[in-house]
Amino acid sequence: MFASFPMWYASLFSGYYLILFLILFGLIIRGVSFEFRSSMPEERKWIWNWTLAIGSLMVPFFFGILFISMIQGMPMDSNGDMTAGFTDYINLFSVVGGVALTLLCYLHGMNYISLKTTGPIRDRAKKYARALYWALYAGLIVFAVLLYIQTDFFALHPVSTSILLAVMILFTVIANYCSYINKELIAFLTSGFTLIALVALLFTGLFPRVLISSTSSANDLLIENASSSPYTLQIMSYIAISLIPFILAYIAWTYYVFRKRVKHTEIAGYGE
How does it sit in the membrane (predicted)? Predict the structure, then answer.
C-alpha cells in the first residue's frame, strides 16, 4: 500500500493512528494469550481466556469503526491531513458497523469450529451461532438503513450497492439455514462470502475515491491522485502477481493439513 498508494497510506495511517494502534494491540494480546495461557496454572488460565476474548473482539470492532468512518467521510484538507474529533470516529453508524463486523467474524469463527470439531464443542458453537444470527439480521438491517442515510452509496452506485447488500443478506440466510441442517462446510463458505461481499460493497461504493472528505468533495482522495506513477504500479503488480500464488498455496496447504475434525477427547479438559 505504501508503494502503490502513498497518499492514501499517509492519510489513512496518520488520521487513523489511534484506531490502528488499538487493532494492533488487540492482535498482540490475542497472540500472546495462547502462549501465556498454556504456561499458567489452571486457576489462572481464566485471565488469558479473557485476554484472548477481548483481543479477538477488539480487532473486528475497530476495523468496523475504521471502515465506516471512511465511507462516512472525515474532516480532511486538500493535503490529505485529517483533523478529526472523537465523534468523527465514534458515532452511531460506526458503532453499528463495528458491532456488525464483529458479529460476522464471530459467526464465521463459530461455523469454522462447527466444521472442525466434534462433541460438546461443536454443539456449543452451533448453539451460539444459531442464537446470534438473529442479532446479525437486526444489525444488517440497521446497517443498510444507516448506509442509505449517512452515505452517498445509493446515489452514486444504486445498482451495485443494492445487489451487494442483497448478496450479503442471502449468504447470511444460507449460512444460518446450513447451521441447522449440519452443512457446516457450506455455512463456513457462505459466511466467508458474506465478508467478501461486505468488502466489495464498501470499496465499490467508495469508487473512485479511497478517502472521503466531509469538509469538501474537492478534498476527496481519489485513486488517481492517491496512486504512484504508472511504472511503480506496474512493478508492484508484477510483485503481487508473483507472490499471490505462493500465498494461496500456503493457505490451501494449511487447510489440507488441518482437514480433519479435532475430537473433543483430544482437547485438554474434555473426555478425561
Answer: Multi-pass membrane protein
